[in-house]
Each structure stands twice: as C-alpha cells, then as structure tokens.
Design brief:
Blueprint (H helix, E strand, L loop, with lengths): L13 E4 L6 H15 L3 E6 L5 H14 L3 E7 L2 H11 L3 E4 L8 E8 L3 E2 L2 H18 L11 E3 L3 H11 L8 E6 L5 H9 L4 E6 L21 H10 L3 E5 L6 E4 L5 E2 L1 H15 L4 E5 L5 H8 L3 E5 L3 H11 L3 E3 L5 E3 L8 H13 L5 H6 L5 E2 L3 E4 L3 H12 L6 E3 L4 E4 L3 E7 L5 E8 L2 H16 L1
Parallel strand pairs: 2-3, 2-4, 3-7, 8-9, 8-10, 13-14, 13-15
Antiparallel strand pairs: 1-5, 4-5, 5-6, 10-11, 11-12, 15-16, 17-22, 18-22, 19-20, 20-21, 21-22
C-alpha cells in the first residue's frame, strides 16, 4: 500500500493533528529523511511548549542519529531562536511548532545551515517522498556509526546577538506590556529584555500549549483585546503581542490602538537604511503604499514580492536586501541570516520610541499614511470565477491598471486592492487601501459585494 502525507506536508512546513495525522513514529522517519535530503552530518533541533513537542522532537533526533548525524537539542525555544542556532552554529535545523494553530496540532519548520528555508521546492517534497516510502518498506538501514545526541543552551547567546544589532543603551525608561499568549515569548522575553531600561508588564507568560487564555495569533483582532485594555489601564508606552512560536510580533500604541505591520515595516526600514545607506528593502504586494514611499525617501530601493516567507527569503538572498516586511507581522533581517524575527523588530520599535520623547502614536503617524481595510476573507465556491467577475467589473474604469503577480491587484490614482486565493481553503482574501477612509470603505464594500454575490 502507498501512504499519502500530502495532508500534513504543506508548502513551507509539516503540520497536522497529533496523533491522528502524525505521531512519533512518523517524526522519526522525518528525522532520517531530513538528514538524507540535506546530507547533514550534524543538525540542531528545538521545540515549543505544546504537550506533544518534546516527544516528537526526540523521535526526530533518534531518526537523524540513526543515519549518522550528530544532534544538538536546544530544548524549549522560539522559532527565531532555532534560526539563530542554525545560523550561528552553521547547522541545518528543525523546529517543532504549529505556530498559532490549536493545541492538538503540531508541525516542523525545517532549514538548511544558515537558516536557509526548506520548502516544497527546496527539499520538503523529497523528505515527504522518503517518509512515504519508508512507512511501507520500513526504516532505512542504520549508519555504521550512529550519531550522538547532546543538549545545548542557546537562549543567552540568542539574546546577546539580538541586542548587539540594536543600540538600546541611550533610550528613556519605557513601560511595556507584553502578551505572550502562553507561547514562547514567555520564555524569550525575560532574557532578551533583561538589563534594558524597560518596566515589563507580563501577560500570559506561563508556557501552556493548550492556550487557556486566547489563541496565540495576534493578527486576529479578538486575540489582542486583553493587551489593548491592559496597555490603557497601566498607562504603558507600548504593547507587544507574540504568536505561539514567537517569530511574529504585533504592536499596540499607548492608546491601545493596533499599529499596522506596514507602519512597523516602514519604521524599521528607515532605521536599517540609516545603518546601510542605499540598501534594498523587500515588501510583499499587500503592504501599504507607505512602505515603498518611506524606503525611497530614505534613499533605499524597494522591491515588491509575492506573499509568503519563501518568496521573501528567496528575494532577499537574490537581491542582498537588508530587511523585508510583510502585512502579517513577519520581519526579515539580513543581519539575522535573512530569517524572520519578531523580537528584533520589537527591539527596533523600542529603540525608536525610547530615542525620542513623543508617544508611539505620534512616532508611527509618519509611517501610517493611508486608510486600509486589513485582510478580509470570503468563502467562495469558485475562486477563479469570482476573481474574473471582479476583474471584468473594473476593466473599463478610467486609469485602472491590473497586475497578477499574486492574485489580482487593481490600482487607480487614489486606491488599490488585491484579491488572492487561499492555497489551503475555499477563500478569497481581500486587501484594500485608499488615500482616505470614505474611498477605502466604498471600494471595500463594492468588491465584497461582487465577491459574495
């Protein structure tokens, strides 16, 4: 019989329900396949706070060691801490996490040495094929000399590396509310923030992979309600929310208002360009118009890409970009092996805020110039037909241009919108931006009516 792992091997990672869709037996085969495909003689492995994570990580380690690779286990860590270990140790890595998915899920994010991503076209399809084969034929023959499995602590080195990239020595004291969502931010924030002039108000720092307080996905507005209220109640300068594996960071200003990831992208881009004049900045096609504007104003070169971290990382490597940002609060740094780290973006925001006397809302207003809808999902039966209907509706409008780099982007003088199909669900995702709120709202409602009728 053949085994089909297509339900759990996604475009960028492995993800599924444990133990229904995958378990430690399969994790061991994935570990062996990872070593075979990367041709690694040593790897590094980390895991998040989910109940199933330690067992899966240890099984993967056994599979890797069986094929002769020496394994370094770094234990509980954030995804960007695993990227740090891969980058600083020069080893391929595997991170056990399902990010913001519910507790019954788990997954593996894999990278080659130097945190280079392993995706569908860069090894993941081959790993799947081997694992499928071995579920039928049995595990591969063990190496003559099995690898060793040792443990190593990397949290202090990770924190020191990040603080070496941002100068926080001269900032004014700040009161910071941090919502870790019972995820890995509760593990990393205390060490990274130690010694800085910050009064940290912790929320949900207890590591708990059942997520008892709210889903660890700060992009969903309902999951930052507690943080918004606490920032106002504490009279804090800023609020930070991390997702489950703490590779994404979302920012709330002193009024409890969310700061758009596009504004954060523009702010960090300006800071990185001050360090690296004339550098290239990557942004995906649904970040705000303000991002390329700010990049050009600061002497940089903006490059627009498709949505998704594999496209961003690929473009960063190709163009030598110094920084990249996405609407989903993923931030990528050349100084961090082109990998994404929400923690480094947070330190940049704290440095910018603490380096002047104004409030965060005033600081980010220079980077938040337009009215935007945020991402709105619609369930549709036929994504292509709905998209074609929208395109036809705007085909004869004056001064309108179309672009199909990723879904359909329609642009006019005062507005643009993008309509993209989800790869995994029967959804169309709409993002709208305009020079003012009434124009944005009118356009948003027009397009949604077309999509949903």
């Amino acid at each position: 019989m053949t085994v089909d792992l297509s339900q759990i091997v996604k475009a960028y990672d492995i993800r599924g329900v444990v133990p229904d869709q995958w378990d430690e037996t399969l994790a061991e085969l994935f570990g062996a396949a990872f070593v075979r495909v990367t041709d690694a003689d040593a790897i590094v492995i980390g895991y998040d706070m989910r109940p199933s994570s330690p067992g899966l990580a240890n099984a993967f380690a056994r599979g890797a060691a069986r094929l002769g690779a020496d394994v370094t286990l770094i234990g509980l860590c954030s995804t960007d801490q695993l990227y740090f270990a891969s980058g600083s140790l020069g080893l391929p890595g595997a991170m056990f996490t399902a990010s913001h998915n519910p507790a019954q899920y788990n997954g593996i994010k894999m990278c080659r040495a130097g945190a280079a991503p392993v995706g569908q076209d860069t090894g993941l399809a081959d790993i799947r094929a081997l694992a499928e084969q071995w579920t039928v034929t049995g595990a591969p023959e063990a190496a003559a000399t099995p690898g060793t499995i040792t443990e190593r602590e990397t949290l202090d080195d990770y924190a020191a590396h990040l603080k070496g990239l941002v100068d926080l020595t001269a900032i004014r004291p700040l009161k910071v509310v941090v919502d870790a969502g019972n995820g890995m931010g509760g593990h990393t924030v205390p060490t990274v923030f130690a010694g800085l002039p910050l009064e940290t108000v912790p929320m949900y720092f207890e590591l708990d992979g059942t997520f008892p307080n709210h889903e660890a996905n700060p992009l969903d507005p309902k999951n930052i309600v507690d943080l918004q209220a606490r920032v106002v109640a504490e009279g804090a300068d800023i609020g930070l929310a991390f997702d489950g594996d703490a590779d994404r960071c979302f920012v709330v200003d002193e009024r409890g208002e969310p700061v758009s990831p596009s504004a954060i992208t523009a702010l960090v881009a300006a800071r990185e360009l001050a360090k690296h004049p004339g550098g290239t900045i990557i942004h995906n096609l649904i970040t705000s118009w303000s991002v390329p504007e700010v990049v050009r104003e600061n002497g940089g070169e903006p490059v627009r890409t498709r949505v998704g971290h594999s496209f961003i990382k690929e473009e960063m490597a190709k163009s030598g970009a110094i920084f990249g940002g996405e609407h989903s609060a993923h931030y990528y740094f050349k100084d961090f092996w082109n990998a994404d780290t929400g923690m480094l973006a947070a330190l940049h925001v704290l440095a910018a805020l603490g380096g002047q006397q104004g409030a965060l809302s005033d600081l980010v207003s220079a980077y938040d110039r337009y009215a935007s809808s945020g991402e709105i999902n619609s369930t549709v039966v036929d994504q292509a037909a709905s998209t074609a209907k929208v395109k036809a509706a705007y085909a004869d409008a004056d001064g309108v241009t179309f672009d199909e780099l990723d879904g359909l982007t329609v642009t006019a003088g005062d507005w643009w919108f993008n309509l993209r199909a989800s790869n995994t669900e029967p959804l169309l995702r709409l993002n709208v931006e305009a020079r003012d709120e009434p124009t944005m709202a009118k356009l948003r409602d027009e397009v949604l009516t077309l999509v949903r009728s």
